[in-house]
Amino acid sequence: MQYIGELISIGVAFSWTATALLSEFGSKRMGNLTLNVTRMAITLIFSVIMFWIITGSPLPAGASTEAYLWMMLSGLVGYVIGDFCLFQCYIIIGSKFGQLFMTLAPIAAAITAWFTLGQQIRPQAMLAMAVTLAGIAISVLGRGDHHNLSLKLPLAGVLFATGAAVCQGVGLVLSKIGMNHYEASLSTNIEAWMLPFHANFFRCVAGIIGFSLLMAFTEGFAPLRKGLHDRKGMAAAVLTTIFGPFVGVGCSLLAVQYTAAGIASTLMALTPIIIILPAYWMFKQPITAKSLIGAFISVIGVSLFFLL
Fold it and tell me: For residue 181, what are the contacts with CB-CB under 8 A and spacing of at least 6?
C-alpha cells in the first residue's frame, strides 16, 4: 500500500495529540503525581500482559546490570523529572503550549548526544534550532509596557515546559545508550521491534519508584487513593497509557519500517499544530494568528533536524 508509512506517522501525531489532551484533563482532575503513578503502574501491567502473550514470560529478557542502570537513569530523567514538569506545565499553561515547547526536545537531544556520544552538530541542525526557537518566541512573546517584548504566559509554566522538553531530549539519548547496552547483553534473542518495549519496562520501574517517593515526601498517598475511585480520571489515565507508550510508540516503530526516518519523524512532529483545534474545543484555549504561525514555524524547525 503506497504511503502507508506516512499515514502511520500522521496517525502517531494524532495519537500523541490525544495523549497530551488526556494528560491535561487527568492532571487537572487527579493531580500531577497521582496521574503519573497511576500511568506508570498501568504501563507495567500492560507490558507484563504483552510479554506473556508474545514471549510466554511475563518479564522482559534479562540483561547486564549496566544496561539496567542506564535504562533506570533514562526513566528517572525522562519520566520522573520530565513528565512531572510536562504535566505541571499542562496544568499551568495547557497542553497546546506544552506541546509547542516540546519541539525543543530535538535540540536538547542533539546537544546531549554531542556531549555523551560524540555526535557532531551540523550547521543544518543549528539552523533548525534557530527556526524552532523563533516559532516558540512568536507564540509566547508579545508587546508589553513601553513596547518592550514580554512573556504572555506564566513564567512557571514556561519553565516547567522547557524543563520537560530538555528532559525528554536528554532521556532519549540515555535511553539509546541503555538500549545499546541492553541489546548487547541480552540473555535471549528477541524481535527487534520488541526491544524498546522491553527497555521501557525498566524505565517505568524507575518511574513508579521515583513518583511514589515524590508523593510520599510531598502530598502523601491520600490523593492516590481518592484518584483510584475517580472513574473519569482513571479513564483518562488508561487512555493516556494506551495512546502513549503502546499505540504511539508501537506505531512510531512501525512507521520507520515503511518510510524514511526523517519523513516519519517530521510527520510525527505535527502534534503542536493538530492540538490547536481540539484544545480550543476541550479547554477553551484561544486560537490566535500568532499561535498558529508560531506552531507552524516550530514544526518546520523540527522537520529541518530530520530532512536536511
Answer: 63, 64, 66, 67, 70
Q: Report how far residue 13's alpha carbon sits from residue 271's, in angstroms, rounded to the nearest whole number.
A: 5
**What residues have CB less than 8 Å from 58, skipping those under 6 apart?**
48, 49, 51, 52
Cβ(107)–Cβ(208) below 8 Å: no
Instruction: Quote the CA–CA distance of 135 and 117 in Å, as a whole number.
Output: 28
Query: 223 with 34: CB under 8 angstroms?
Result: yes
Q: Is 149 helix (H, G, I), strand (E, B) or coil?
A: strand
What DSSP designation does 61 have?
A: P
Backbone angles phi and psi of 275, in degrees to 5:
-75, -15
Which pLDDT does position 1 carry in this prediction?
A: 60
Task: Extract the C-alpha cell encoding 251.
Answer: 506505531
CA atoms lying within 13 Å on the CB side of residue 284 = 0
Indicate the pTM of the whole model: 0.89
How many C-beta neighbours within 10 Å does residue 87 have?
Answer: 26
Are the C-beta atoms of residues 175 and 109 closer than 8 Å to each other?
Answer: no
Q: How far apart are the first and last CA of the chain?
A: 27
Asked if 121 and 290 touch (Cβ cutoff 8 Å), the reply is no
Average pLDDT over residues 6-11: 87
Cα-based torsion angle of the residue sequence 74, 77, 83, 88 in order, rounded to the nearest 10 degrees: 180
CB 43 within 8 A of CB 241: yes
Q: Indicate left, alpha or beta for 61 from its phi (over 0: left) and psi (-120 to 50: alpha).
A: beta
Binned at pLDDT 50, 70 and 90, residue 85 comes out as very high
- Phi and psi angles of residue 143, each rounded to the nearest 5 degrees, phi first: -80, 130
Nearest to 82 by CA among 15, 174, 194, 220: 174
| pLDDT above 70 (res 262) | no
